[in-house]
TrEMBL record:
Residues covered by the HTH gntR-type domain: 2-70
GO BP: negative regulation of DNA-templated transcription
GO molecular function annotation: DNA binding; DNA-binding transcription factor activity
Keywords from the UniProt entry: DNA-binding, Transcription, Transcription regulation
Name of the protein in its database record: Transcriptional regulator
UniProt-listed PANTHER family: MANNOSYL-D-GLYCERATE TRANSPORT/METABOLISM SYSTEM REPRESSOR MNGR-RELATED, MANNOSYL-D-GLYCERATE TRANSPORT_METABOLISM SYSTEM REPRESSOR MNGR-RELATED
Pfam families: GntR, UTRA
């Protein structure tokens, strides 16, 4: 005999698989599930917590719990901004500007941006949303001593790439690495996940023409809402 909370979990999954609940639908309230299964609220909450952790459901504070939308997939072989990727999937990107500050940074980032240590950079932290749901927290560093006219950039805009190119600078390429990282307490609060929940960490160094680095970015993404895809071709083995 399986535990009751697993029965509830399996029931919810069947409701979704059979089309009775679709992405974006609000699920029955805890009280309704308590009455349906004749169990405690704690048991119901345990089942719902599992589904949230698995990315099947998403909680919206003050609104309830909903069936998750499909995870958004982006390709590794195309250089787009976050906003461009999201728009291409038919969804609405937005951003909340958390901070902008002029600082001095570590030798490592200075070297990546090809600037002398001691030179200032602009650090920009933004919460990235898709259809008003938290998707990622990104931290970008822009060199002040570069061709980029920092004072003309609106960091409240969803697409900084678009603004850079509108100023006559051509974004040419980027190098990118993807790894995993656990959410600390602060990040968990912004992304509405549990502390130590696994996140996708994307680190990108973007270049304009003549191989000039213009942005170093570190982003932490919710893996239940964001995936990365890539086509691989096998070379002839000799």
């Amino acid at each position: 005999m399986i535990p009751i909370y697993l029965e509830i979990r399996n029931y919810m999954i069947k409701q979704i698989e059979n089309g009775f609940l679709v992405p974006g639908d609000r699920i029955p309230s805890e009280r309704e599930l308590v009455d349906l299964f004749k169990v405690s609220r704690m048991t119901v909450r345990h089942a719902i917590d599992q589904l949230v952790n698995d990315g099947v459901l998403v909680r919206m504070v003050g609104k309830g719990t909903y069936v998750s939308s499909e995870r958004l997939a982006t390709a590794l072989n195309v250089l787009n901004s976050f906003s461009e990727d999201i728009i291409a999937t038919g969804h609405k990107p937005s951003a909340k500007l958390l901070s902008v500050e002029r600082i001095q940074i570590s030798d490592t980032i200075c070297n990546l941006l090809s600037i002398d240590c001691g030179h200032d950079v602009i650090k920009v932290e933004r919460l990235r949303l898709v259809d008003d749901l938290e998707m990622a927290l990104t931290t970008s560093f822009f060199p002040v001593s570069r061709a980029l006219p920092i004072e003309e950039i609106d960091f409240n805009s969803t697409s900084i790439y678009g603004q850079i190119e509108s100023l006559g600078l051509r974004i040419e390429k980027a190098s990118e690495t993807v790894s995993a990282e656990a959410a600390d307490k602060r990040i968990a609060g912004f992304l509405r996940v549990k502390e130590n929940a696994p996140l996708l960490k994307i680190v990108r160094l973007t270049f304009i023409s003549n191989n000039v680095p213009i942005e170093y970015m570190e982003g932490l993404f919710r893996p239940d809402r964001y995936v990365i895809s890539q086509e691989l071709y096998r070379q002839e083995v000799r």
